[in-house]
Amino acid sequence: MFKKYRIEKPSLIVTIILSFCMILSSCTQAEKQEMPTEEIQRATSPSNIKLINALKTIIPHAMRYKGTPGLNIALARDGKVIWEAGFGYADLEKGIPMTPETVMHSGSMGKTYTATAIMQLAEKGVIGIDDSINKYLKEFQVTNPFGERDITFRDLLTHRSGLTSNAAGSEFKAPKPLGEHLKEGYTQKTFKTYKGTLLPRWSAKVGKRFLYSNFGMATLGYLVEVTNPEGLSFSEYVQKNIMDPLGMSSSMYPPVQDAAHVRSDIFERFSSGYAQFGAIDIPTPNIYFADYPAGTVVTTPGDHIRLLLAYLNKGTYNDYELLKPETVELMLTPQLDEALGGTVSLGLTWMLENIGKYDFNFGHSGAHMYGWMNTFRAFPKQDFAVAIATNHWAMQQNRYKEHRIIYSFISSWLRSEELFVEQKTPASNWAWKTSYVVGLIMAEQLKGYLGIEGPVTSEMIESMAVGAKLRADAPNSSSGWDPDGFRAGMRDMLDVEMTLKAIQSFIASDQIKVTPEELRKIYKELGGELPSVLFNWK
After folding, report:
1. Domain containing 514: what range?
2. Strand segments (E) across 95-178
3. Do residues 181 and 116 share a domain?
């Protein structure tokens, strides 16, 4: 049986519902066809298997909602990757499916590797994070014209150097060597955006404001290159000291993402990227980044998640000490007095969310113009990490929404496991679950709300089940219809005594065949408004 409980913060559940169940676009017949799916399943516990089965129904739904061509994902629990999967297409024109082995362009998630490299050098005493960077720069010096002091490594790790936020440094050809690019950039008063008419190079005094800077992170990458005792390039250093020891066999941090700089076995597995304008997906041209230490990692979610697992395990993964525990603790400690918006704070490069709460998480998102958007997050108190990659960039919409739907669902599911002794959920598809909830509601309305004393016969149930019509132009048409699910929902609710207490007890029991999160999501999709008899939790 389920334990009864009181939801002390219903806003969490409502937020998850609203993020997932906003008005859906009408689905074309093509969207309703079976989505290509490939997975690597390593989960053994019934609880994890149930979670993965639920994700396999929700992820395609979220992708259709956002018009995402392809998505691949890795999920880890207890320090191990238990599931990798690909959904949809890596290339729409060629019809190539997305798989767990499809390689993504990391975007700014690569900054976490650069920060890790800096902290490794700090641990060895090669640098000090509160040292002036000019102490280590030989070919050029960096001076913020607003003053009031030199820029330190910590300033760059927390985006407080005073450099203006920018996306400059983009090229259609291989960029200049990193040192040359930075030396030239620091002599210029503006960034190249709109021919230098929009963004000044500097916008604030050192240490005074958070200004997210690719150019600043590129400077850190160059400092790795000029200070590491082995004399390695930045890319070589990350490969030798981070990726290879973590067993990231499908990963590189190349200066240029082309065939000349990326291993052929990785390069041939790249997904195609798409710029999304409403219903239009435009293939993305090859764009290279002179600020490459700010984010040109090429990897798979199953590889990429290993960095998170090392941080979750106090700096060690597979017996390799990436960083010392005290260094990890420092990097995951808030470094700014102010929040970055909402519940987000900043550690040393890592983004920290919901500090002090059960769903505290750290991670970083990343986007590669204009075709890839990715996220990876670790939830220490809930013992899971997830890496999600998509091959689209929504040009005129809120971004990362399907990513948040997925990891918020996982967090909420695991929270329910803490609150409930047991969950009993069949591995049914979303149409079955939607239809099951429709059956619950129909039976509750007929026998409970209307108070009809006569029996609901099998003939009545069958007539409703087979007579139902799914309108293709309805906002939630992608949910689908399954008569068997409807029949099951009707039967289960008709077995319940039609009192508020009995109905609520059934909803909070192990007899219902959807989880609390699924019940709320589906009810909201169907047009329901909270609260309801079905959701009047005590």
Report:
1. 430-535
2. 96-97, 104-105, 170-171
3. yes
